[in-house]
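lol ok so funny story. i was supposed to be doing the assay writeup but got distracted and ended up predicting the structure for this chain instead. priorities right. anyway since i did it might as well share w the group, maybe its usefull for someone
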Amino acid sequence: MERYIRDLISGGENQQLDFKYCVSDSRKIARTLSAFSNSDGGRILIGVRDNGSIAGIKTDEEIYMVDTAAHLYCRPEITYTIRQHSSGNKTILEVDVSRGKHRPYQVKDENGRWITYFRHNDQNLEANRVLLQVWRKEEKSPGILVKFGKAENLLLEYLKEKGPITLSKFRKIARISPYRAESILANLIILKIILFNASEKGFTYELNPSDQKEMSTDSPAHAAAPL
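and the output, tada:
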């Protein structure tokens, strides 16, 4: 079992693995729980420093903090499994979180606001309204049918000629409302026609290279298969 943990740690923090030295604030670990639930799932190793060294934990206190995070500070409540591992004379907790079935999962912050996070590489980033629309549309229906109009074709032509675009730039060139722009971007992400790139600075959108050969902007509609 010690080798299993050390193999996990050796890969470093990534899209599906997060290290926590300790859990001193349930709200902070709630962000990671929600980010994993809103993305591809993942594991949290509690008792491991950012550099991968093992610190160990006080088991009962940490378990209580995780439970509080999942059930008090997340909505919907997040389901997880937890296991204890020993490395030498130190204890590590492995918290396993699956991709959620009822996205988006939100976290209550210190001011009582509900914020949505998602996992991007080794970071928990705040989701924007486009991503929230993607999740809600996927939850609402197993598939979508999108009619390509002037705004959609304008967006695709821009992406082909100039590359990635921001939401504000798309709104400006298409002269459409924020909600309409967000909805178009969300639909094209679901259809896998475009991809989004995220960082702490914000979001950009670009063509999906694998879809370009099959896509034609002359088509009046594009349907998504059940997700």
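The chain has two domains: 2-126, 129-223. The longest strand covers residues 80-87.
back to the writeup now i swear
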